[in-house]
Amino acid sequence: MVDSRNVYMPGPSVEDFSVDVLIASCGFESRSIHATKELQGRFDQLLVYGYLDNQVLSFEQNRQYFEALTTVPFLADADAFASRLTADLEELLTLDGRLRIAVDISSMDRSRLGATVRTLTNISATRRVDVTFIYSVGTFDSLFESPDAVVLVNRPLLGFEAWARDPALPVACVIGLGFENILALAALEMLEPTRTIAMIAESADSRFQARVRIDNAALMKSPDIAEVGYSVDFPFRSLHVLEDIVHALRAHFRVVIVPLGPKVFALLAMLVALEYDNEVAVWRVSADLGRTPRDRPALGPISTIQVIMGAEPVK
Amino acid sequence: MTLDMATEFGSAYPVFSYTATKMEPREVAKSFVPPPGFQTLRNARNAILVGPRGSGKTTLLKMLTSEGLAAWDAEEADLARRSVQDAGVFIGVDAMWSEQIMGNTPATRSFGAAAYALHIARAFIKTVLFRAGRDEYTANLSALHLPISLSKVGESRIAARTAELFKLPASSASLTILDSRLGDRLNELGTYRYRVPDGQNLPEWAYLNPLHSIAELAQLVNSIVGEGTRKWALLFDELELAPESIVADILRRLRGNEPTLIFKLSLSPILRSTDQLVGERGAIHGQDAEYIALTTPYRSDDFVAEIFEKQRKIAKLPIRYQPREVLGPSMFDAGDRGGRKRARIDPYRKGGRLWNSMDWLRRNDSTFAAYLKASKVDLDRLGDMPAELRSAKLRKIRNLAIVRRHFRGGARIDTQGTRALYTGEATMLAFPDGNPRMATIMVRELVSLLKTDPALPLSAEVQAAAIDATGTRFLALLHAQAGLKIGSRSVTMLDLVDAIGGALHRRIVDVQFSPDVPAGFFVDQDFPAQYLPLLTQAANTGAIVHIPRQNSSSPVAVTPRGRHYRLSYLLAPRYGLPVRQGKTVALWNLLEGSDLRDTSGRVARPALISRGEADG
C-alpha cells in the first residue's frame, strides 16, 4: 500500500455525471446493468468484466445487454480480474490529462472490489485519478431468506491484511451487518474482538433495518456490542462515520473491519483502511461459491462517492 | 451500549467473545477457576498443554505470569504463588496476527520469524518491567509476584544488550523506551510485508536469534538483580502458529539441558502445518515435557460447578444459589451416577418421568419391549428388585430410553422442547463438556437470569434458553471454520459433524433398540483423506472430543486417523443425543447412507435429520 493522498467528496448526481471510463460487472443480479443504463451518454468508454461462476438468474440478459455495448471478458477469479483491469487501465493512461473513472460496485464481489481499489491505488502512485464509486441500492424483499450458513472464506481480504505494531494489543472489530448472521458470528468467533461496533445500514425502507436486527439477534443482544447506523444513500457521510469510529479505536486496539451487509460498506471499509496506511485490516468472511445466488433488483436511486486518488500527474 | 462506551479503553471485558486471548492476565485472574491440569502445569519443568479452542490454554499460560498470579484472589492462590518460582513470559498469537506473519516461501517465512522474534523480545521486556514494578498496573499493587529491584545502571545494561541482540539502531537507558523502539522496529518490518513477496530482500537486522538472545538476557537480568538460579518460563500460546524456525529451536532446547529457560507451550489437538512437534522428532512425554490434555472423555461436572460458584460470588448472589438448587433435578440423572446415590426420591418409581418414558416405549416400541423381556426386567415390579440389581440393569439404557421415547413421541430436535430435555443440574453441568469458555458463557447466562427471576429452581424454559444461547455461541465457532471445495461441492466441518450427529441419533431412535448403540467413532482407514481436514477442524474446535485408547493415547497428533472420538456434549441438544459414553464404531460405516458418502454431483448439505419449530 502507498501512503494515501486521497481526497474524498460526495459524488455527483446522475444529472451531473460525466466520466471517461465506466467500469461495470456482468453478474447474476438484474442491477448489474442498472447504473450503466441510467448513465448512458455520460461516459466515453465502458469496461465490463464478467464472472465465470454463477451464470444464473439475470446473467444472460445482462450479458446480452453489455455485449451489445462492448467486449466482455469473463474472468475466473480476482487475480485474473486485477491483471486484466490493470492492463486495460494502463492502456487508457497513455491518454493525456487526468483520468476520470467511475466504478459500479453494485454487482462486484468483495474480492473484485478489493482488487479494484488496490489497482486504482497502485495507479494513483504515479498520477492522479478521479474515481467515482457508484452503487445501485437494492430492493428489500421481506420474503428473502437468510443466506446459507456456509463459510468458505474467513481471513483478511487480499492486500488489506494490515500490520500490527504491537500484536499484544487487543482487537476491535467494526462489523457491517446484513442478513448474513452466521457469517457475522463466524467472523467474531475467529477474530475474538475485545470491542465490537456493529454498523447497520439505514435506508428509506425501514423493514431492512428491522430484518437485520432480527437476523442478528444472537449477536445484538450482547451488551458489549455497540450499534451505529450508516446511510447507504450518502456514502460520503457514512465514510466519515466509519472513519470517526476507527480513529477513536486505533490508539488502543488493532482495528479490523468486517464488511458484511451492503456492498457500499465494503467499499467504505477499504477506503478507510487506505487512509490508515496498513494499520487497519479488512476481513473477508464469505460463503464464496457456496452461497445460493439471489437477485436483489435495483430500487432506483444511485448513490455515489468521489475520490481523487494520488499525486498530480507526472509531467 | 453506546459508542463511547464501546470505544473507551479499559472498561469491562467482553461478554460476546469471552476469551482469555485478548484479556490481560490480571483480567483473566478475576474469574479464574483452576482446572485439574493446573497443578501439573505449575510443577512441570517443561509442559505442553493440549486442547481445542476455548479449553483454557491461554488462561492457564497467563495464570503462570507474575501479573496473573499477583492478581488472583482465591484460597489456593497463595499456594500457587509460592509454587511458581519461574518468571513467566507470555507470548501469544491470534488469528489476525497469524494471518499477517504467515508465509509460504523462504523469504516470507523469514519475515514472519523476524516479526515473531521482536514480539518475543517485547514480551520479555514487559515481564522485566512488571517484576520491577515499572508499569502502570504494578504501581497500584500491594504485592508483586517475584519482584526484582532494578537499578538505573542495571536497567541501562539490560537495555543496551537487548538493543545489540535484537539489532536495534539505538539503545536507551530506559527499558520502557526500549520497548517502544522494539515496537518501532516491528513497524518498520511491516513495511516489508508487501515488498518481500515482490522479491525485495529483508534487511540484515531482520535475521535474529530470539531464543538464544532471551536466554542471554535472562541470565543478565538474574545476575544484575542477584537471582543467579532463577528460571524464566517462556509461555508460548498456540505454538503451531509460530514460525517453523522458532518451533524447531524450542524443540531443540526442550531436549537439551537449558540452564535458564523452561518452556510451557500450548497446542491444538491435531497439528496441521507441521509434524515436528509430535512423532519421533517431537518432545517425549515425561522426558522432554509433560503433555497435559485439557479435554477428557469423561464428565467435568465438578469443574463446571466450580465455575458456577465463582460466577455466583462475582455476581454477589446468596450462597443458597447452588447448582442443585438453581437447576433442580435432571431427567437424565437417576441419582446413582458413579455409584453415588444422591436422589432423595426414587427416580425409577412408578409414575415418575423415567418410568413413564420406559413404559411408553414398552407399549409403543416392540424392540424395546423385547429387550426388557430378554433382560428379565418387569417395569411393573421394579420395586421388587434389589436396588443395586435394578440400577445395574437400567443405568445403561436409562438415558437411551428417555431420548428414544422423546423423539418417537413426535418431538423434533433443535427445538425449545428438546432443549428442555437437557435441563437440570446433572445435565446442565455436563453440557459445557468441561470447556471453560462455554461453561462461563452458560453460567453467566444463568446468573443474569437469576438476577431478574430469583425463584428456584429456574424453570426448564429458562434453562433451555441458556442452553440455546450457549449452543449458538458454540455453533458460531464451528461455523467460523472455512469449508472445503471438493469438486463442485462445498463441504464444511459442520456438515460432517451434522452427518455424524444425525447417524448417531438414528441409531438411538430409529432402528431396533440396543443398549450397545455407539456413542462415538474411530477414524478408520476407509474414511476419505479429503475429509480429514474437516475432522481436524472438529477436533481443534472441540466439536469432537478425543477418547484415549492404547494405540492413540497421546493428546496431540498430526492426523485424526486411527483416533477415537465422541461428539461434544455441547452438541447433544442439536442432534438429540443423550449425554453419555459408550462404544465407538468405524466412522465411514457410521456415515453409511449419508450425503457425504455420495461422491457424485453437488450434495453439499447433509440434511440428515429433520428440524422444526413444533414439538411433538
Give structural notes:
- Chain A has 315 residues and is of the alpha/beta class.
- Chain A has 9 helices and 13 strands.
- Chain A has helices at 34-38, 59-67, 78-92, 110-123, 181-191, 206-215, 217-220, 235-249, 263-275, and strands at 7-10, 19-26, 43-51, 74-75, 99-104, 129-138, 153-156, 171-177, 195-202, 225-231, 254-259, 281-286, 298-309.
- In chain A, strands 1-13-6-5-2-3-4 form a 7-stranded mixed sheet.
- In chain A, α3 runs parallel beside α4 (110-123), α4 (110-123) packs parallel to α9 (263-275) and α8 (235-249) packs across α9 (263-275).
- The two termini of chain A are 23 Å apart.
- Chain B is an alpha/beta fold and 616 residues long.
- Chain B has 3 domains: 3-293, no CATH class; 301-478, no CATH class; 483-597, no CATH class.
- Chain B is 44% helix and 7% strand.
- In chain B, α15 crosses α16 and α15 (353-364) packs across α17.
- Chain B is globular.
- At the A-B interface, β7, α5, β9, β10 and α8 of A face α1, α7, α8, α10 and α21 of B.
Short recap of the structure:
Chain A is α/β, with parallel strands linked by helices. Chain A is built from nine helices and 13 strands. In chain A, α3 runs parallel beside α4 and α8 packs across α9 (263-275).
Q: What structural class should be given to the helix and strand makeup of chain A?
A: alpha/beta
- State which percent range the strand residues of chain B make up: 5-15%
State the helicity of chain B in percent bands. 40-55%
Instruction: Kindly report how far apart the N and C termini of chain A lie.
Output: 23 Å
**Spatial order of strands in the largest sheet of chain A:** 1-13-6-5-2-3-4
Question: What quaternary form is this?
Answer: heterodimer
Mean pLDDT across every amino acid position of chain A: 88
Number of strands of chain A: 13
Largest sheet of chain A: 7 strands, mixed
For the record, the CATH architecture of the largest domain in chain A stands as 3-Layer(aba) Sandwich
Biggest chain-to-chain interface with counts: A-B, 60 and 54 residues
Tell me the strand order in the biggest sheet of chain B: 2-3-4-1-5
The share of residues in helices of chain A is 25-40%
Helix segment count of chain A?
A: 9
Q: Note the gap between the termini of chain B.
A: 39 Å
Please write the CATH class name of the largest domain in chain A: Alpha Beta
CATH topology of the largest domain in chain A: Rossmann fold
Low-confidence stretches of chain A: none
Number of domains of chain B: 3
Anisotropy-based shape of chain B: globular
SSE string of chain A: EEHEHEHEHEEEHEHHEHEHEE
